[in-house]
Design a protein that fits this description.
The protein contains four helices and four strands, in the order H-E-H-H-E-E-H-E. By secondary structure, it is an alpha/beta fold. It has one domain. The mean pLDDT is 86.
C-alpha cells in the first residue's frame, strides 16, 4: 500500500472480515506505516488537521484514496471504484461477498 501511495497512486480498497478489524488494522498497521515513512507523511496529511482527508477508515493522497471496510458492511462495499483491492481473511465473515472486477 505504501508503494502504491508513493509510486502508483489510485483508488484502493482494503477489506477485513469486519469493520472493527478494519479499524484495528488501520490503527496498528496503516497509521504506523505512514507515520514512520517521511515520503508517505508528506503525501497523507496529518489526521489532526481540519478536513485532512485522513480518518481511521479513509486516507486521501494525491491521485487516490485508501478506503478500509469490513466484509460484513454492505454499505462499505457499495459504489467504490477501486484500482487496487486487498482482501484479508474475508471468507471468515462474508459468505455473500462478491466482487466485480473490470
Amino acid at each position: 500500500m505504501g508503494y502504491i501511495i508513493h509510486q502508483a497512486p489510485g483508488p484502493m480498497m482494503s477489506v477485513q472480515p469486519t469493520v472493527e478489524m478494519a479499524k484495528r488494522n488501520s490503527k496498528q498497521r496503516i497509521d504506523p506505516l505512514i507515520e514512520e515513512s517521511e515520503v508517505l507523511r508528506k503525501l497523507v496529511r496529518d489526521p489532526r488537521s481540519r478536513d485532512s482527508g485522513n480518518t481511521v477508515l479513509s486516507k486521501d493522497f494525491p491521485g487516490g484514496v485508501l478506503v478500509m471496510t469490513g466484509a460484513n458492511s454492505a454499505v462499505g462495499l457499495r459504489s467504490m471504484a477501486a484500482r487496487y483491492l486487498f482482501l484479508d481473511e474475508v471468507d471468515a465473515s462474508s459468505r455473500g461477498l462478491s466482487c466485480t472486477c473490470r
